[in-house]
Amino acid sequence: MALLHKLPATISGSCCIRNLARCSLVLDAASPSLHRTFASNSTSTTTPLLKTPLYDLHLAHGASMHPFAGFSMPITYESQSIVESNKWVRNQAGLFDVSHMVQHIFTGKDVTAFLERITPTDVKELAPYTSVYSMFLNNNGGIVDDIIITKHADDKYYIVTNAACRDTDLAFLDQQNKIHRPIDISHEILDGWGLLALQGPRAAEALQCLTDFDLTQLKFGNVGLVPFNGSEYWVSRTGYTGEDGFEISIPNDETLAFSEILLGQSNSVVKLAGLGVRDALRLEVGLCLYGQDLDETTTPIQASLSWVVGKRRRVEGGFNGFDLIADELNNGASRRRVGFLSDGPPARQGSRIYDETGTTLIGVVTSGLPSPTVGKNIAMGYVEKQFMKRGTNVLFDIRSRKRPGTVAKMPFVPTNYYR
User: Fold this and answer.
1) How far is 118 from 141, CA to CA, in rounded Å?
2) Are 262 and 204 contacting, i.e. CB atoms less than 8 angstroms apart?
3) Structurally, how many domains does the chain consist of?
4) Chain segment 360-376, per-residue pLDDT in tens
5) pTM higher than 0.85, yes or no?
6) Does residue 91 share a domain with residue 233?
7) Residues 120 and 6 sit within 8 Å (Cβ to Cβ)
8) Containing structural domain, residue 202
9) Residue 234 and residue 94 share a domain
10) Is residue 86 a part of any domain in this protein?
């Protein structure tokens, strides 16, 4: 049957949690283009912005709200600067509202085969109640969106996609469905549901206070149906900061109350965190932001994400863009995503990269900012493959001046996942 976009009325076993909030964009607060960058990701300046279930809570805590992907989202809070918030999440626990992300439920006897056509992941062998990072691929192997797939059963999956990619993703799914008909798949979108990301080394301690469920059973990437005060929510041990943490999917009418209980019960441990600090946290651990570090012209291999292509899939193929991706796996890609360190003015998105002589253009920066944790400027970008070796000296074009940088190992900050 055709993909059906339905809205379930209540939480049920069909909703399984995933890992993440991938499109929570962001620059550091010091960026003069902060508001302009967020506004560019909104749907329209004349279209009323959507609100997450925590909109009023954000305002009550002094949030600076900006447009992002059609939503009014918190960037910073008056109680903490981005640097202070970064340190808090790295040492305590931050609560992020990522309810703007699109939560999907896919069911049907053909859903595994369909997902293996449009992603390079070994979906078939994925264990139930586990999540995996993946991506929708177009026919040229380009990344339509990066996503999290959570498997409930061979005929049931929960997928989270980026808010800014919603229209593109739905058009892509409908197109792929038409190409591969006849197909038995039902597709639901959990519009209005809350999605919270509790991140930091004390996240488990804070969340454990609210449930009798033993959270130590959940390792990184595991998912569980966890009881909280008479309700049950799908909780995934995952996140977008590199720290231990959880993502929690909650029906709209329960999201605010749950958040207030979590903040109230552990106010010395958990603080609200906005999208501004999220950008620094994700970049410090080398995670990509769709629309900056990934797009439809970029393959997983070029993005240094070859590990998303399952071992079985590398042999059997059968997914969009397989021939091109297989060639890049065997022979290397013409360009690669790498990390950089530098001093002085930071290299930011769009900065051109030159070789150390300053005469040859070799790439472009896709994300960059001063790292609160590292104490240096960090950046990611794409360079021609002969310049990707760690330690290679480069020059960044920053305000028409060439500034030195070095290709560096990622992640810049070690991850702290619970395994």
Assistant:
1) 10
2) no
3) 2
4) 999 999 999 999 999 99
5) yes
6) yes
7) no
8) 34-100+192-284
9) yes
10) yes
